Amino acid sequence: MCEKSCSHHHERKKLYLRIFWSVIAIFVIIALVILLVWAILQPKKPTFILQDATVNALSLSGSNFLTSNIQVTISAKNPNERIGIYYEKLDIYASYRNQQITLATELPRSYQGHKDITIWSPFLYANSVPVSPYLAAALGQDLNAGAVLVNIKVDGTLKWKVGSWISGTYRLNVNCPAYMTFGNRFHGIVDGVGIKYQFVQGCSVEVAPS
User: Fold this and answer.
1) Where would you find the membrane-spanning parts of this chain (predicted)?
2) Do 93 and 73 share a domain, yes or no?
3) What per-residue confidence (pLDDT) applies to 191?
4) How many separate domains does the chain show?
5) pLDDT band at residue 28 under the 50/70/90 scheme
6) Shared domain check, 88 and 12
7) Is residue 9 predicted with pLDDT exceeding 70?
8) Is 129 in the same domain as 34?
């Protein structure tokens, strides 16, 4: 009886081991296939273009309080032929000399298919926002000189999609320089109460694992 019982127990243990190693092998094969497909496809980061910016307000009041109202049009293109992009969370704002000068506006979540282009036209606001004395002095000088370099930035996260597989989260950072002129150096277009600047220029894009 002991021999039969021990033999049966041994066979059951061998069966469990076979099932265990079979499951491990399946997961390893799936992981290798995903890595192989990923290596072959080599996803390219999206390209962003700042198309235009309409400045409705950009002024200093008091010693260092900034008010701004800027509408920008920015586009993103997925350059990949077999990889989709999920934009999970994107915040856009204006920056001057590496300091944020408007509130962040959240762009709607979206999926971008192969070679697709997405266009956003958000408003960027700041109402009497305090800035550092150094920044206020520099901006005042630039406004008086008739030329201001503002950077439109997008920070957020994205995921890649290959077939039914979706990658982990990646950080996305976009920087679009917008050179605006006023007074005698003015080159914009008067658009109602604002001034519209046409750019159609590429932005720097960084994508990295989160």
Assistant:
1) 20-41
2) yes
3) 73
4) 2
5) confident
6) no
7) no
8) no
Give the span between the Cα atoms of 135 and 68, in whole angstroms: 15
Run of H or E residues at 120: strand 117-120
Whether 66 and 36 share a structural domain: no
- Closest alpha carbon to 108 in 125, 84, 91: 91
* CA distance readout (Å), 41 to 11, 44, 77, 78: 45, 9, 17, 14
Q: Residue 74 in contact with residue 47, Cβ under 8 Å?
A: no
- Is 77 found in the same domain as 38? no
Q: Are residues 9 and 77 in the same domain?
A: no
Nearest to 94 by CA among 36, 147, 48, 55: 55
pLDDT tens across 130-144, in order? Answer: 888 899 999 989 988
* Whole-prediction pTM: 0.80
Query: Which residue range(s) make up the domain with 73?
Result: 43-209
CATH of the domain at 117: 2.60.40
**Residues 95, 170: one domain?**
yes
Distance CA 77, CA 112 (A): 8
CB contact burial 133-167 (16+ within 10 A = b; e otherwise) = eebbebbeebbeeeebebbbbbebbbbbbbeeeeb
pLDDT: which is higher, 3 or 174 = 174
Q: Provide the token pair at 167.
A: 């990658």
User: What's the sign of the alpha-carbon dihedral 138, 61, 180, 124?
Assistant: positive
